[in-house]
């Protein structure tokens, strides 16, 4: 799920990603964690970021949010567009 | 759905909100439109913003994205938290 300080948010419950984020900050000693999600998981990523900073790591803040459109290839070789979000969490100055 | 230049994104399809955004820019002559959404509709708001700027109003850009946690009262008087997003679309300089 985590690659360096990137956490890919999928279709699990938000708390799974809250835990992964806390682990990344505390045990991996990252000072920045990026939550990445696509499509319907975008809402879960926002939930995870909000829960993390409001209830668990109050010294962490949302430092940047960017969105983009990614092109995915389906099995038949066709392509479809999907929205994606990147939420950067970091220690507030 | 629109109040001044604010569009509340709910559980309709993204294209409904893309149309509302285009109308707000073109017919209401707004130079800034804010998409607001909560919970699961957050993904729809991101879709609407991305579709609008990539396929319809290419001169419009995402100028700001903020998230927050809102407290909602349920029927029994209890409260629950929900994540919310605000996406500001504006004419790119």
Automatic annotation (TrEMBL), chains A, B:
<dbReference type="GO" id="GO:0003723">
    <property type="term" value="F:RNA binding"/>
</dbReference>
<dbReference type="InterPro" id="IPR002775">
    <property type="entry name" value="DNA/RNA-bd_Alba-like"/>
</dbReference>
<dbReference type="InterPro" id="IPR013795">
    <property type="entry name" value="DNA/RNA-bd_Alba"/>
</dbReference>
<comment type="function">
    <text>Binds double-stranded DNA tightly but without sequence specificity. Involved in DNA compaction.</text>
</comment>
<dbReference type="GO" id="GO:0030261">
    <property type="term" value="P:chromosome condensation"/>
</dbReference>
<keyword id="KW-0963">Cytoplasm</keyword>
<keyword id="KW-0158">Chromosome</keyword>
<keyword id="KW-0226">DNA condensation</keyword>
<comment type="similarity">
    <text>Belongs to the histone-like Alba family.</text>
</comment>
<feature type="domain" description="DNA/RNA-binding protein Alba-like">
    <location>
        <begin position="5"/>
        <end position="68"/>
    </location>
</feature>
<dbReference type="GO" id="GO:0003690">
    <property type="term" value="F:double-stranded DNA binding"/>
</dbReference>
<dbReference type="Pfam" id="PF01918">
    <property type="entry name" value="Alba"/>
</dbReference>
<keyword id="KW-0238">DNA-binding</keyword>
<dbReference type="GO" id="GO:0005737">
    <property type="term" value="C:cytoplasm"/>
</dbReference>
<protein>
    <recommendedName>
        <fullName>DNA/RNA-binding protein Alba</fullName>
    </recommendedName>
</protein>
<dbReference type="GO" id="GO:0005694">
    <property type="term" value="C:chromosome"/>
</dbReference>
<dbReference type="InterPro" id="IPR036882">
    <property type="entry name" value="Alba-like_dom_sf"/>
</dbReference>
<feature type="region of interest" description="Disordered">
    <location>
        <begin position="69"/>
        <end position="93"/>
    </location>
</feature>
């Amino acid at each position: 799920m985590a690659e360096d300080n990137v956490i890919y948010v999928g279709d699990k419950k938000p708390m799974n990603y809250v835990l992964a984020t806390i682990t990344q900050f505390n045990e991996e000693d990252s000072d920045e964690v990026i939550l990445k999600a696509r499509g319907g998981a975008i809402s879960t990523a926002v939930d995870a970021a909000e829960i993390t900073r409001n209830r668990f790591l109050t010294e962490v803040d949302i430092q940047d949010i960017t969105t983009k459109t990614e092109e995915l290839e389906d099995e038949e070789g066709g392509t479809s567009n999907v929205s994606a979000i990147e939420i950067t969490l970091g220690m507030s100055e």
